[in-house]
Amino acid sequence: MKSAPGYQGWYLAARRASWARNKPRAALMTERPADPVPQPRLHPGTVASIFALALLLAAAWRWSNMLLLGFGAILVAIALRAGASFLHERLGLGIKAGVVACALAVALVIAGIVAWAGPLISDQFRQLVGSLPAAWDQVNAWLSDSPVGQFLERRIETASQNGEAPAGGLPSIFGYVTGTLTTVVGGAANLVLLVTVAIFLALNAPTYRNGALRLVSLSYRDRARQIADELGRSLGRWMAGQALDMLLVALATGLGLWLLDVPLALVLGLIAGLTNFIPYVGPFLSGIPAVLFALTQGFDLAIYVALLFVVIQQVEGNMLMPLIQRFAADLPPALTVLAIVAFGSLFGFAGIVLATPLLLVSIILVKRIYVEDVLGDRQGD
């Protein structure tokens, strides 16, 4: 007969049972704790880069007028440099002498046009002011017989009864005249400054170009030089195509207005060609003075002039520009319109004038720097 286990056996059995129950907890206590998940931190260099970019954008916004003036001077310098290169190849004239010759030729042409057309424009303007009441009576009579005119007349009467009519009087007229004179004087001063800077840029283009490239790191300088050369070629081709388009529009408009016996037909044609530098908006701007001068001869002639501008712009937009864009820069029409609206809302009239070349520069920079160099996508080449 076996004896009952003693105290020692009972103690060992109890220890085994306790160890079995506490084994999972003990295992957890002896396991090595997991490493903490590293939290993302901004590197000081990244913070400095973001701050520098924000500071650069703020400075660009603060001095946007000066930057736009400089960009316009670059465009004029490219045109002067192209003319000087043409004279150098054809006549053997030096580049700097060619730049001076081109600048003097442009100045003489402008002075001749002003001297010839100034008195005529002044005389026609007096006739226009004298004929405006009769022209307004014709427009009012025409609107009174149409549903649209009757609707507008009711709206104007309602606005006048509700006190929504614009305020008049001598103070408002004086403020309008003062603001107009300030704008004209400021624009003339900016134009003189732009031409002066453009001449200096054209005379010493390699110096300014190499100085700008020295601001780029050595590892990227060759690539920056390639991009700068492409920008110069693209802007040059675009300006050549634009100049041809402006010339043809000026000739067609001047000839059409001359056939219609509109006063100052050649001057109005020149204005149409110059304003055609601004896509989509320029033709509308040039049509306003032409229609106003046509009103001095009658309301029917003004209608014919408006139709002439519509026909010329349709032919120019659908037939002429596609042919020119085969060797010039081909810009998407939708992006061009959006660029005009965006730059115009941001920078005013100067943004509207320079919207198309700014869009061209932006497309090239995004394609070469971001798409090709940052993303590494060179499939378009």
TrEMBL record:
<comment type="similarity">
    <text>Belongs to the autoinducer-2 exporter (AI-2E) (TC 2.A.86) family.</text>
</comment>
<feature type="transmembrane region" description="Helical">
    <location>
        <begin position="292"/>
        <end position="315"/>
    </location>
</feature>
<keyword id="KW-1133">Transmembrane helix</keyword>
<dbReference type="InterPro" id="IPR002549">
    <property type="entry name" value="AI-2E-like"/>
</dbReference>
<feature type="transmembrane region" description="Helical">
    <location>
        <begin position="67"/>
        <end position="87"/>
    </location>
</feature>
<dbReference type="Pfam" id="PF01594">
    <property type="entry name" value="AI-2E_transport"/>
</dbReference>
<keyword id="KW-0472">Membrane</keyword>
<feature type="transmembrane region" description="Helical">
    <location>
        <begin position="335"/>
        <end position="366"/>
    </location>
</feature>
<dbReference type="GO" id="GO:0055085">
    <property type="term" value="P:transmembrane transport"/>
</dbReference>
<feature type="transmembrane region" description="Helical">
    <location>
        <begin position="173"/>
        <end position="203"/>
    </location>
</feature>
<keyword id="KW-0812">Transmembrane</keyword>
<feature type="transmembrane region" description="Helical">
    <location>
        <begin position="99"/>
        <end position="118"/>
    </location>
</feature>
<dbReference type="GO" id="GO:0016020">
    <property type="term" value="C:membrane"/>
</dbReference>
<feature type="transmembrane region" description="Helical">
    <location>
        <begin position="243"/>
        <end position="260"/>
    </location>
</feature>
<protein>
    <submittedName>
        <fullName>AI-2E family transporter</fullName>
    </submittedName>
</protein>
<feature type="transmembrane region" description="Helical">
    <location>
        <begin position="266"/>
        <end position="285"/>
    </location>
</feature>
